[in-house]
Write a structure and sequence with these properties.
Number of strands: 14
Distance between the termini: 21 Å
Shape: globular
């Protein structure tokens, strides 16, 4: 297990975000006044903006990363790209795909200021949860990408969902996805589990016994990859109890946990940019 390849314009990295858009995502997230769909869309849109910021140099945005976004559940039994029909898009092209901007409050240097927040996709909560189809779509994208990027840092796939797959057991497809690799290691799959529970979130557990009794928590834990050493070090900066063997899984995530989960992945990989 390496996960140390340099990120460059010749060897970019890949982030794929998979977002559950099933009808249950219309429910409020535990401890929040906003729906799971809104929180998930907000977190991913923010993280893409942050990736663009990290890739921006004096001459403009450098092609350090490719981005893919898969939505599943917006139509019955369907999973598809949320980037206007494109599949994987270079980070250099993402600004041209902004749907709109939204003004939000943000605290900068202890001052609350208005921030123009880019939106690439809108929150949706519509139908069932075809998670297997979403994973299979990610497999097809990743297979093609790794064939052309054999020396790159392995793709990171981040799945944000609130429940059970409605089109079969996702574990077999997930194993296929995790089995894909570059010369630097296997694909990393992280899961962010949105719940309506009011129990305290559990971030980056290393064993099932750390999880509360929840019908989907153990399955989502088993679907999550172990964190490479560099990511464990960064996760420890945010959470006290991160140990060896920790997996890329957050149970009962709030918006803050969602953003931290996404940020830990991008910070670790961004440290390899040259």
């Amino acid at each position: 297990m390496s996960y140390s390849s340099e990120i460059s314009r010749n060897n970019p990295g890949l982030f794929i975000f998979m977002v559950d858009q099933s009808r249950s995502m219309s429910h409020r997230i535990g401890g929040s006044s906003r729906s799971k769909a809104v929180e998930a869309a907000d977190a991913i849109n923010r993280q893409i903006a942050e990736i663009i910021n990290r890739c921006t140099k004096s001459e403009g945005v450098r092609h350090y990363f490719d981005i893919g976004i898969i939505g599943y559940g917006f139509k019955r039994g369907q999973a598809a790209s949320l980037l206007s029909g494109a599949t994987i898009v270079p980070i250099t092209d993402m600004e041209g795909r902004i749907l709109r901007t939204e003004t939000q409050k943000q605290v900068i240097d202890d001052q609350e200021v208005d921030y123009e927040f880019p939106i690439w996709f809108e929150p949706v909560a519509a139908s069932d949860t075809p998670m297997v189809q979403a994973i299979q779509l990610a497999i097809s994208w990743v297979k093609s990408w790794v064939e052309n990027h054999r020396e790159s840092f392995p793709p990171i796939v981040i799945n944000i969902t609130d429940g059970e797959s409605t089109d079969g057991d996702p574990l077999t497809s997930l194993a296929t996805l995790q089995g894909l690799s570059t010369s630097d290691g296997n694909v990393l799959v992280w899961n962010c589990h949105l719940s309506e529970s009011k129990v305290h979130p559990v971030s980056f557990p290393y064993a099932e016994h750390q999880l509360p009794e929840d019908r989907y928590a153990k399955m989502m834990f088993s679907m999550s990859s172990e964190l490479p050493e560099e990511m464990i070090a960064i996760a420890k900066e945010e959470y006290e109890n991160v140990s060896q063997g920790a997996r890329g899984y957050v149970f009962n995530a709030q918006l803050e946990d969602l953003i931290k989960l996404l940020d830990i992945g991008t910070r670790a990989v961004s440290s390899l940019m040259k």
